[in-house]
Specification:
The chain is an alpha/beta fold. The chain has a single domain, classed as Rossmann fold, CATH 3.40.50.880. It is built from 8 helices and 12 strands. A hairpin with a 2-residue loop joins strand 11 and strand 12. The longest helix has 14 residues. The protein is globular and about 50 Å long. Bound molecules: zinc ion.
């Protein structure tokens, strides 16, 4: 069993006066898979996974530093002090060894993470981040309450069209309305409707009603949203199952926007808007 802790650091040039260098960006990227292990987070031959390499390049281009880890134990109050933004692409109950057998999160990991966000931390979850710490029957888990929605299901991959509902929002300023791309499109449930600000919906288009795609017989539904939590900022982005999504310059520009916003740049714009922008609730249609 290897444990790889990769730190890529570029010192911020002392002479740089550019506006984007005025605040540090120290990212912790966690990819432990206690549940299903996605190919984009799988390390082979001791090398960083596909998404780890891509995210590292993006953060370095932004002048930041990144620590890529599969050790969920690094999510603790003391260690979180070293970071500005925490990114999850995880699955399952991270306090358990689970599928990848990587080190587990301590019993206070989630509460430490939430306290750190409340004190001003930024949290970004990609794709399977909301397939993590599922809610027990009859209640909502603290992690799901925090991230704002919980993975419910997905069908076969298809070319989905993204409908931007807040085009000027700084967290998605490079996301073009109507962008169509192939991915595995997560459908979420248990939305924290009183807290989240929906940024984009997925339009299943032609597969809505097509044989084999029954899950998508629903109205356009939220795939990217954000929220405030006291002084902190939280963003969830359902994209990122496929390697070629991580490769896509449009996705990489979106990731940059996501990280910058989570790091406190740009207007907050996190007023809850669920009932105003989501056609009907998914729960009603399922
Ligand atoms: Zn997936």
């Amino acid at each position: 069993m290897y444990r790889l802790l990769f730190t890529a650091a570029i010192a911020t040039a002392m002479a740089c006066s550019c506006a984007h260098a005025d605040k540090s960006l120290r990212v912790l990227y966690l990819t432990k898979s206690a549940g299903f292990e996605h190919s984009v987070v799988k390390r082979e031959d001791g090398k960083l996974s596909y998404s780890e390499r891509t995210l590292s390049e993006i953060v370095q281009k932004m002048g930041g530093t990144i620590t890529c880890t599969k050790d969920a134990g690094l999510v603790n109050a003391e260690n979180l002090k070293n970071f500005d933004v925490v990114v999850f692409c995880t699955t399952g109950d991270l306090t358990q060894p689970g599928t990848d057998k990587e080190p587990v999160m301590g019993p206070n990991g989630v509460s430490d993470l939430i306290a750190w966000i409340k004190a001003g931390g930024g949290f970004v979850g990609y794709h399977n981040a909301n397939d993590t710490f599922h809610s027990p029957e009859g209640s909502i888990s603290p992690y799901v309450e925090m991230i704002g929605g919980e993975f419910a299901t997905h069908g076969p991959q298809f070319d989905g069209k993204i409908k931007v509902v807040d085009p000027k929002h700084p967290a998605i300023q490079d996301l073009a309305d109507g962008w169509s791309l192939r991915d595995e499109w997560y459908i979420s449930k248990n939305f924290n409707t009183g807290a989240i600000h929906v940024l984009a919906l997925l339009d299943p288009g032609k597969v809505r009603g097509k044989k084999g795609y029954d899950a998508y017989k629903i109205p356009n539904y939220p795939i990217i949203w954000c929220r405030a939590l006291d002084k902190g900022r939280i963003l969830y982005n359902a994209l990122g199952h496929r390697e070629d999504v991580w490769d896509n310059p449009k996705f990489q520009a979106l990731v940059k926007d996501n990280l910058n916003w989570a790091n406190g740049k740009g207007d907050l714009k996190a007023d809850p808007n669920f009932s105003a922008v989501v056609p009907t609730t998914i729960e009603e249609k399922k």
